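ok so i was messing around last nite and threw this chain in just to see what happens. nothing serious, just curious
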Amino acid sequence: MAQAPSHTSDTAPQVKLSLQQNAAVRCSAAFALGAGLQKVGKGKDWPPLAERGREFFVRASAQLMDETGMSRDAVGNLVQRKASELAEGDKLDRTMPACLLMLDSSGL
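result:
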């Protein structure tokens, strides 16, 4: 039986994301966290993430809004929730290698 869509805080219906869209959200969050860590001298095993990570986030967010109709706020909230999850334990360290591959393959 289908369920009615749940609603986010900005009243946009929650959209079921594809695997690629979920990966883009997860990696956008990972790059934001990684750039923040690099700003305070951590995350030195990763390439610089501030510029490339930000551009990845911008492009991924725009694509997600185009493909799903989500608002900018809804996408931002989704990335923030994913960042909170990745900040727990060693999740960021385990996620970053795949995200770095995704960043490299993006051409940024």
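not much to say yet. The mean pLDDT is 87.
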